[in-house]
Structure formats: C-alpha cells, structure tokens
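With this grant's support, we have paired protein sequences with backbone structure tokens. One protein thus recorded is set out beneath this paragraph:

_____
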Amino acid sequence: MFNYIKFAIFQILGFILSIPELVKLKYNETKYSSIEKFRFVKSHAKKSLDLVKIKIKIIGKEKIPKEEVLFVSNHASMLDSYILVSSIAKPVGVIIADVPTWRHIPIVSHWLNLMKCVFINRENNREGMKSIIQAAENIKMGQSMAVFPEGDLTWVKDPDALISDFKPGALKIAYKAKCPIVPIVIKNSRSTYEGYEPVGRIKSGNVEVEYLDPIYDHIDNPKIKTVELADRIKSKMIDAMKMN
C-alpha cells in the first residue's frame, strides 16, 4: 500500500504545483505548440511511474509515422494511461470514458482539455459519434489521438483473454481522419495495479511497450468494415503478446 500512498500524494502535489504552468498555457494557448502543452503531462506520468519503480522498455518507436495517427492500445491495468502517455514520443490526446470521475476532477480535467482529450459516452450512440467526429477533427488539425478499444480492462471483460474483444466503432476515428492506425501492445502491466477502483495496490515491475507496424488498410480500402479491421488488429496484437 506504501507505493499507492506515494503515488497518490505525488498526483496531488504535482498537479497543484502545475497550476502556474497550466494558467500560462491555457490563457495563451495559441502561443504554444502541442509539444509544449504535452510536456508537463508526459513528464508527470514518467515521474509517477519512476516513483513506484515501474520501468518501461519501449520497442519499435521508429515505426511511428511522422504524420498524425490513431494509437490503439490494449488495456490491462489502471496505470495504462500513465504508461501510454509516458512512452509515446509525440503529443497525444486520449479518448476517455465520459464519467464524472474524469470530466470534473480538479486541475487534471483542465490538462486533459488542453491535451485535446475527448470524452466519449458509451451509453448514447449519438453522443458517442459526436466524440468520434471530434477526435477525428483533432487528428486532422495536427493532434494524434489514442484509444483503448477494448472499452474496459481486459481481465474485467474476459479473465482468460490476452486481449479482449474490441469495440470496433473506436476505429471510425481513423476512417474519418484518413490517418494511419498504430497498434501499441503494453506487456506485463496487469501486475502493476491490483484492483479495479481508484484506490488499489501498486506493484513495482518491468513493463514493455511495443509499437507494431502502422496500418493503412482502411485508407487503401475505405469499404473494409470496422469489425473486420478490429479483428485483424487484435490478432496482430495478440501475436505480439505471445512473443513476450
């Protein structure tokens, strides 16, 4: 539990101390690049993991295209967002479940908005589509996006799965943005966080983040169904997981 307490205190202090930087960026937004807006969150995520001795090995970073992309990642731990943000080389906004916990959390919610994160309503298809369109527009405007298409933690959906079934609608972001999809496989993160609630037990350990080859199938053939493409991506990710 000591790791969790350290981690939680660091979140509180880190975000409180970030207020001057947040104010500077928020009220002079056009003066700063997406890299500058992303810098604090990336650094904070990395320091948070370092504090609890979670080490990340990154493989395949050279495969990321220079253009903006949709990153697609598996989701086995409550810490995956920290792992994802700290290991992605370029500024990225994340698709987040539209729940009060995230939308209204003090200070953090303002950083999420600055990063152009998008909240998605999983219960209302019409509202969900608005979020997909917004994420696609972000990509068109020069902001890569990331999504956990399983829609929940892997082991919550299917305790026996390496990666559970995707919600294929998430891939519509890449169709509408006409951008590449870069699959990310996060290995061994399941053991870093014990629990399914904001309060849990954090364990030190080694995590591997592997970038797979970018996917252009939906650009070459826009008629390919999202369900089919989701299955292809999931299979590639599972193959990479098995090579661990």
User: Anything to note?
Assistant: The longest strand covers residues 181-187. The radius of gyration is 17 Å. DSSP finds eleven helices and nine strands in the chain.
